[in-house]
Amino acid sequence: MCSDTKPNIFENAAEHQDLPAGDFSSWLRHARSVLIIENGTDVNCGECIACCNSSQFIHVRPDETRTLGRIGKDLLVAAPGLPKGHVLLGYDKNGFCPMMVNGKCSIYEHRPLTCRNYDCRVFAAAGLAAGDDDKARITERVRRWKFSYPAKSDHDEHLAVQAAAKFIREHAECFPGGKIPSNPSQLAILAIKAYDVFLKKDGGSVKTGRASLDTEVANAIVEACRKFDASKRTSRGC
Ligand code: SF4
Question: Among residues 109, 145, 209, 113, which one has the least CA distance to residue 16?
């Protein structure tokens, strides 16, 4: 999330210009590695603070002690469904993160890992809006990101990520329990984890459209995500 100097994005005359998002395949490798290692990403936020003022709950892990030491306890709530010690940093009535002071992050050097790993290009990659009205500022930013395609593989991989996101969104009934994430961010991340299922191999195409084929594709997505998450656990030694 945001850099440490933050004038208002909406006063910037260049706010509608395209933004270079990088070569797609290079970006995809990096985004997947950040999902595994969680070592922070390198988004060119410029003056944008959209993700810090879009009514987002920020997950903070119990081992982020330096971060937790800088956030008032009254601003944190227990994270539902996660083990004790995991907390969420909420937002104020205007949707602003309470750590935002005078347009900049007051704990930037110690901001949560969630903020360090956040990359709104995942929505541009998956062809999704960032969410409802309270995420409109992020979606405005997302629309400006433009990937480049120096090789055919850049183009093919982008189509595969978008096809994965579209398939997941349109085939909830094929997934276990008939459930898919309602959160666009989680949906985009699933597509990034499982895009390989939609990569056309040897000139062939991924067959969908019949119930049995769709269920096969959904199973392949679940398996691809399972393998991806297993590689994450391995890299963390757990
Ligand atoms: S802690 Fe709040 S203000 Fe700082 S980067 Fe994260 S969301 Fe933005």
Answer: 145
Atom of ligand 1 nearest to the CA of 56: 7
Tokens read off for 105 = 């992050």
Residue nearest to atom 8 of ligand 1 (CA): 52
Q: Tell me, what's the pLDDT at 9?
A: 41
pLDDT tens string 124-145 = 999 999 999 899 999 999 999 9
CA dihedral over 39, 44, 49, 51, signed as positive or negative: negative
Q: Which protein residues are within 6 Å of ligand 1, measured from CB?
A: 1-2, 52, 58, 97, 99-100, 105, 107, 111-112, 115
Which residue's alpha carbon is at the smallest distance from atom 6 of ligand 1?
115
Mean pLDDT of 206-232: 87
Ligand 1 atom 4: residue of nearest CA: 105
58-78 pLDDT, tens digit per residue, is: 999 999 999 999 999 999 999
DSSP annotation of 73? G
Q: Name the nearest CA neighbour of 161 among 217, 123, 135.
A: 123
How large a percentage of the chain has pLDDT more than 70?
87
Tokens of 143: 């629309």
DSSP 212: H
Q: Which residue type does 235 have? A: S
DSSP sequence for 9-37: GGG-TTTTS-EEEEEHHHHHHHHHHHHHH
**Which is nearest to 1 in space by CA: 116, 79, 131, 132?**
116
